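testing teh design pipeline on a random one, pls ignore if ur not involved
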């Protein structure tokens, strides 16, 4: 089945934005508050819609029109955002978010650029078989690494793990972080695999850059009782990831 493209006068069902109001480049983030924060960095920014977790803004960055959209937490809901943006004619999507480090050196305040993602999410397997890879666009990955290096923060790059579980539970096995560490995974997050698969199916570009807000294997315990993503060191990494994403989005 060929990718769906909606006409300019159509309205996206859940994002509620008109196709005609979308730029061909979009920055996506999980938090609606972070989307509003990104909008403050744009020229002539205006909010298009706010429906459920999907808040959409329009504006320009360095003279290039861009769309900013929030997608909430988790791959299934985020996939709705990615799919509708692609159907609306967006041809480049970069996700900027937070993630947990898996390798010992990937700790708070660092930036991770994803080359691809392990599909441990629940939605992508309903779109394509398990064997289908979730990979970022190589040119965007290279550009994101270069842009992130200019922030002066520590930068890592590699495959990330996309999973559906945030808080651990004693009732289930959960994620084997140590096994994924041995496999070379650099970080764990919740949406990238869905983005990469959907982008591939639509034949569009996709990339992802993350601020690291902790490391479950470096913590004293894995219960996440002391999890705090609002520390200054994390805020600096979030800002670095966002500006890196914007720079590459319009390059």
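output:
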């Amino acid at each position: 089945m060929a990718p769906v493209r909606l006409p300019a006068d159509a309205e996206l069902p859940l994002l509620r934005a008109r196709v005609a109001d979308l730029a061909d480049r979009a920055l996506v983030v999980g938090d609606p508050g972070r989307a509003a924060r990104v909008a403050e960095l744009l020229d002539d920014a205006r909010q298009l819609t706010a429906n459920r977790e999907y808040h959409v803004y329009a504006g320009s960055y360095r003279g290039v029109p861009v769309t900013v959209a929030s997608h909430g937490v988790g791959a299934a809901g985020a996939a709705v955002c990615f799919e509708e943006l692609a159907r609306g004619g967006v041809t480049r999507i970069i996700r900027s978010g937070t993630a947990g480090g898996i390798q010992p050196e990937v700790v708070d305040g660092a930036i991770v650029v994803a080359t691809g993602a392990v599909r441990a999410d629940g939605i992508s397997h309903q779109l394509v078989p398990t064997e289908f890879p979730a990979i970022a666009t190589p040119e965007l990955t290279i550009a994101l690494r270069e842009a992130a290096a200019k922030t002066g923060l520590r930068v890592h790059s590699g495959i990330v793990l996309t999973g559906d579980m945030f808080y651990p539970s004693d009732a289930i096995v959960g994620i084997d972080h140590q096994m994924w560490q041995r496999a070379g995974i650099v970080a764990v997050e919740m949406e990238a695999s869905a983005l990469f698969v959907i982008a591939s199916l639509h034949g569009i570009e996709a990339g992802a850059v993350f601020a690291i807000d902790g490391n479950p294997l470096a913590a004293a315990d894995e219960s996440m009782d002391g999890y705090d993503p609002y520390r200054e060191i994390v805020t600096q990494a979030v800002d670095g990831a966002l500006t890196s994403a914007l720079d590459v989005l319009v390059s």
